[in-house]
Amino acid sequence: MKIAVCVKRVPDMDVRFRIGADNISVDQGGLKFDINDFDAWAVEAALQLKDKNAGSEVTVISLGPDVVQETIRKALSMGADRGIQIKADKVPFDGLAIAKALSAELKTGGYDLILFGKMSPDSSNGVVGPMAAELLGLPCVTAISSLEIANGKGTAKRELEGAQEIVEFPLPAVLTVDEGLNAARLPSLKGIMAAKKKPLQIKPALLAEPQITVRKLELPAERKAGRIVGEGAAAVPELVRLLQTEAKVL
Amino acid sequence: MANVFAFVETRGTDVRKVGLEAVTAARMLADKSGGGEVHALLLGPPGIAAKASQIGQYGADVIIVVEHAGLANYSPEVATATAADRMKSGSYRAAIFSTSAQGRDLAPRVAARLGVSIVTDVLSLEIEGDSIVVRHPMNIGKVIATIAIAAKPAVIAMRPNVIAPAQNEKAGRVEKAQPAIDPASARVKVIETRQGGGGKLDLAEAPVVIAGGRGLKAAENFKLVEDLAAAFGNAAVGATRAVTDDGWRPHSDQIGQTGRLVSPQLYIAVGISGAVQHLAGMRTSNTIVAVNRDKDAPIFKVADYGIVGDLFEVIPALTEAVREAKKHH
After folding, report:
1. Preceding omega of A172 cis (within 30 degrees of 0)
2. Which residues, in sequence order, are CB contacts of A247 under 8 Å at separation 6+?
3. What dihedral do alpha carbons B196, B255, A91, B136 form, nearest 10°?
């Protein structure tokens, strides 16, 4: 099988973000970056298929400036075979522009399967995978939490609100990966050494003019300070009174 | 004056609350743009046409009803083709979808087919001159972006629960239509929709959410959370990532950065410390209550009301008190 996985370099979210001086970007100072979790699960899914299907090849693709080579190398150190950087000064917010640039590369690869994470936490838009599928004219299943592939056909499970869908699809196809599909392997020392020698191509991104523009970023209004109503079960009557008379939710 | 398209989400022959929210948002936008029409697409198996009058009550001028036996389950390819064809044939200023599991799947495909951009998880929307300006949370809700959409139509997926469905009766003229492609010809097929927990309210729609964390100590103790939800009668049960990772609850119940985003009227956190990844999924809730043994737990920083104490004593007492309060209503 020929499998492509599109990955994004994202900042660690466990910090207090600052807005940059231009008011339309997040201050990058002090942020730590790594592969998006959902994309790491997509890489893992590709590697598990590779392990089961001899002769498979896993290509990792990332759009962005040269720092994304680190993210590609991380996936290579997990066991992917080769990388492609779609070089752009920055990653636009507009998912259509990203999907167009990625699909221009993806359509030349003859892939049986193209995997994405279902979303990235930084832009939190979650549209690139299904948009790329549409541009490529390929079948697509989003946010999968289980996957079986046999005889050129796949079956996946999608989590809905209070329900699950079981979905069948033919290959080639585009899939986006949700949490719960697998646990991503950590790169081994041997993997890290091997990754340094794996091929990494650099190609220019063909970025379309964006149709959406970020005008302003701001930090959300702080929730007003709450209060401790009391301790233990003795505080329950006061809580119920507040929910009825103040919050008016009971 | 411009018309606005709305996609009405359904499951089987039921219209989902997010579907009414989409119609309500489309109505607001059409009215703000000087009184255009709202055209709502209602797609489903035989029986769905009976729901058209309800869509009119929420502000649709035209309801395009596509009834087909092949649509008992969601069909991404039929929904994409049918919505995109309709949107191409009308000159819509905007198209409103939902940021639900189905909307997240459908809306980007429709936008790509039309060659236009999309913003999902939208918190609010305004018309400013030639653009539609929306607010969209980034970095797990720690940053809020104001985004101008120049694309026409502007494809917008609303976050569930940020716009309450509002009655605003319009003519609701029904136009029957055929699916744009034969459901039997779709490459991707949903062969089964399994309902989880039989009839329970789902997290995205419930006005009250009770969520449990590691503090419950064992899977079976979720009974306390379920009992409290039952006492409310309009509550759904959620969980933290730690709990779903341990298999105490299904992944679909997870509230947080990588799970569901909820904004209910009332959120009660039971035995939840308040990890960043969890707060990302619930901090926009209207009123937050936390019950935790540790008075320094971060959850108390976002909670409007906190009780410090043993949840195994507090929650049964609260369940009893809520049951009493509901009796007198």
Report:
1. yes
2. B266, B286, B287, B304, B305
3. 100
Residue A247 lies in a domain: no
Domain residue ranges in chain B: 3-185, 208-327
**pLDDT digit string, tens, across residues A193-242:** 999 999 999 999 999 999 999 999 999 988 887 899 999 999 999 999 99
Cβ contact B252–A210 (<8 Å) = no
As to burial, measured by CB atoms within 10 angstroms (0-12 exposed, 13-18 middle, 19+ buried), residue A29 is exposed
| Subunit contact B200:A162, Cβ cutoff 8 A | yes
Q: Give the separation between CA B183 and CA A3, rounded to whole angstroms.
A: 28
Q: Which of A160, A168, A218, A227 to mutate to test the interface with B (most CBs of B within 10 A)?
A: A160
Partners of A122 on chain B (C-beta within 8 Å) are 138-139
Which ranges of chain A would DSSP assign to H, the alpha helix?
37-52, 68-78, 95-106, 128-136, 189-195, 236-245
Angstrom distance (rounded) from CA A120 to CA A126: 7
Asked if B107 and A219 come within 8 Å (Cβ–Cβ), the reply is no
Determine the length of chain B: 329
On whether residue A213 sits in a domain, the answer given is no
- Asked if residues A111 and A136 have their Cβ atoms less than 8 Å apart, the reply is no
**Amino acid code (one letter) for A181:** L
Among B108, B197, B260, the residue with its CB nearest the CB of A95 is B108
* Exposure of A130 in the CB half-sphere (CA atoms within 13 A): 29
Q: What is the pLDDT of residues A136-192, one digit of tens each?
A: 999 999 999 999 999 999 999 998 887 899 999 999 999 999 988 999 999 999 999
Q: Residue A117 half-sphere exposure, CB side, CA atoms within 13 Å?
A: 26
Instruction: Give the chain A residue nearest B258 (alpha carbons).
Output: A179
- Counted across chains A and B, CB pairs separated by less than 8 A come out at 288
Nearest to B9 by CA among B74, B57, B92, B72: B74
From residue B264, give the alpha-carbon distance in Å to each of A43, A49, A220, B223, B284: 35, 40, 18, 21, 8
Which residues in chain B have their CB less than 8 angstroms from residue A126's CB? 104, 108, 120-121
Domain covering B3-185, topology:
Rossmann fold (3.40.50)
Sign of CA dihedral A13, A16, A21, A22: positive
Q: Can you give the residue range of the structural domain that contains A112? A: 2-204
Instruction: ipTM value, please give it.
Output: 0.94
Q: List the CATH number of the domain containing A99.
A: 3.40.50.620
pTM: 0.91
Third-level CATH fold of B208-327: Rossmann fold (3.40.50)
Confidence of residue B1 (pLDDT cuts 50, 70, 90): low
- A-chain CB neighbours of B269 within 8 Å are none
How far is Cα B285 from Cα B267, in angstroms, rounded to an integer?
Answer: 6
Helices A37-52 and A68-78 pack at an angle, to 10 degrees, of 40
From A194's Cα to the closest Cα of chain B, the distance in A is 31
User: Quick check: A235 and B203 CB within 8 A?
Assistant: no
